[in-house]
């Protein structure tokens, strides 16, 4: 009987820890300085939070209810596959849009530098039929 | 090992899809077998043109060790990041790091980038198209060189031993 009490204690602890980690991840997303730092919250702390909850679920349904625990493993697998990919896509989008980063960020990646373009637009060569005005242009069927 | 056929381009993926489907529905009923088999054939047919060439795993037991190490690092990294977020006197030192890659295959580079995203305070921001460098954003780094060295020793070298062992001695001879 005592083993069940201890087990329930462990499960409760894991659930609380999972909730705390998920909360910290969301908090990080809310109040870190710039986009790139905010990315760290959901990739790390939230993964850990969900991992804790899944372990708790595995323990509960596996030991107390004697059910096989495969679905939790699958959720873990999907989570570990999708979390880095979505984080990478978000980061790439941020770089593409040249989102500003906190001033203290060191390192100057080429992706965030202004592109090398001239001051004036490159003049295009004038085509021969440029003198034809809009009205004189032959109608297209 | 089943050979690839025109209607079964990636047999391993098909088998995996079928197993995952059966585990998800948690039943071995004939209807689920039929539906899972249908999905296992149709999904690879639609997606196999996006697949890269899979390099062969040369030393599977090292892969297990690598997975265990990454799992441990994920737990440590979570505590670090959580502490950085809730510590009110934190002085985080964000840093963009350009990481020079030793790996050459696209698949292994993807694996490394995913590992970096999941582990200590780093997100891989851009896998550059030339396949030579990786842009990493780190939440709290003191100096760039030690971070690069850590990633190189902890993750890239094991991956290299697992997938590209034949290229390793050559590279080491170059750096020495």
TrEMBL record, chain A:
UniProt keywords, alphabetically: Membrane, Transmembrane, Transmembrane helix
> What does the record list as coiled-coil region(s)?
none
Which stretches of sequence are listed as region Disordered? 101-141
Q: Where is the composition biased (Basic and acidic residues)?
A: 117-141
Locate the transmembrane regions by residue number: 6-24, 45-63, 69-91
UniProt xrefs under Pfam families: PhaG_MnhG_YufB (PF03334)
Tell me which positions the record assigns to the signal sequence. Answer: none
Entry's Gene Ontology molecular function annotations? sodium:proton antiporter activity
- PANTHER family (UniProt xref): ANTIPORTER SUBUNIT MNHG2-RELATED
Q: What is this protein called?
A: Na(+) H(+) antiporter subunit G
Task: Please tell me the species this chain comes from.
Answer: Halomonas beimenensis
Q: Which gene encodes it?
A: phaG
UniProtKB/TrEMBL annotation, chain B:
By its UniProt entry, which Pfam families does this protein fall under?
MNHE
- Span-the-membrane segments of this chain are 7-24, 30-51
User: Has the keyword Transmembrane helix been applied to this entry?
Assistant: yes
> How is this protein situated with respect to the membrane?
Multi-pass membrane protein
GO cellular component terms, alphabetically, are: plasma membrane
Q: Which GO terms describe its molecular function?
A: monoatomic cation transmembrane transporter activity
Keywords of this entry = Cell membrane, Membrane, Transmembrane, Transmembrane helix
Check the record and name the NCBIfam families matching this protein.
Answer: PRK08965.1-2
Name of the featured protein: Na(+) H(+) antiporter subunit E
**Protein's organism:** Halomonas beimenensis
The organism's taxonomic lineage, starting at the top: Bacteria, Pseudomonadati, Pseudomonadota, Gammaproteobacteria, Oceanospirillales
């Amino acid at each position: 009987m005592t083993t069940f009490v201890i087990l329930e204690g462990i499960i409760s602890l894991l659930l609380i820890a999972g909730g705390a980690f998920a909360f910290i991840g969301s908090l990080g997303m809310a109040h870190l300085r710039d986009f790139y730092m905010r990315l760290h919250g959901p990739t790390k702390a939230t993964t850990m939070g969900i991992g804790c909850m899944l372990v708790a679920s595995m323990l509960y349904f596996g030991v107390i209810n004697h059910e096989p625990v495969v679905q939790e493993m699958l959720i873990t697998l999907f989570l570990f596959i999708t979390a880095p990919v979505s984080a990478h896509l978000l980061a790439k989008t941020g770089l593409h849009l040249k989102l500003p980063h906190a001033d203290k960020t060191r390192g100057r990646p080429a992706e965030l530098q202004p592109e090398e373009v001239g001051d004036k637009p490159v003049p295009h060569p004038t085509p021969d039929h440029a003198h034809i005005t809009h009205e004189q242009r032959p109608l297209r069927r | 090992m089943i050979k690839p056929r025109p209607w079964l381009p990636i047999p391993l993926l098909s088998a995996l899809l079928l197993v995952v489907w059966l585990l998800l529905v948690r039943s071995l009923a004939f209807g689920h077998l039929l539906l899972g088999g249908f999905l296992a054939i149709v999904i690879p047919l639609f997606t196999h043109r996006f697949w890269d060439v899979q390099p062969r795993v040369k030393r599977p037991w090292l892969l297990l060790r690598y997975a265990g190490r990454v799992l441990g690092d994920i737990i440590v990294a979570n505590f670090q990041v959580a502490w950085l977020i809730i510590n009110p006197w934190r002085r985080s030192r964000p840093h963009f790091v350009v990481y020079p890659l030793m790996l050459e295959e696209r698949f292994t580079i993807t694996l490394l980038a995913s590992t970096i995203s999941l582990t200590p305070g780093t997100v891989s921001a851009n896998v550059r198209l030339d396949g030579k460098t990786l842009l990493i954003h780190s939440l709290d780094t003191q100096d760039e060189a030690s971070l690069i060295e850590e990633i190189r020793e902890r993750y890239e070298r094991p991956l290299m031993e697992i997938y590209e062992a034949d290229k390793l001695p050559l590279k080491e001879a170059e750096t020495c």
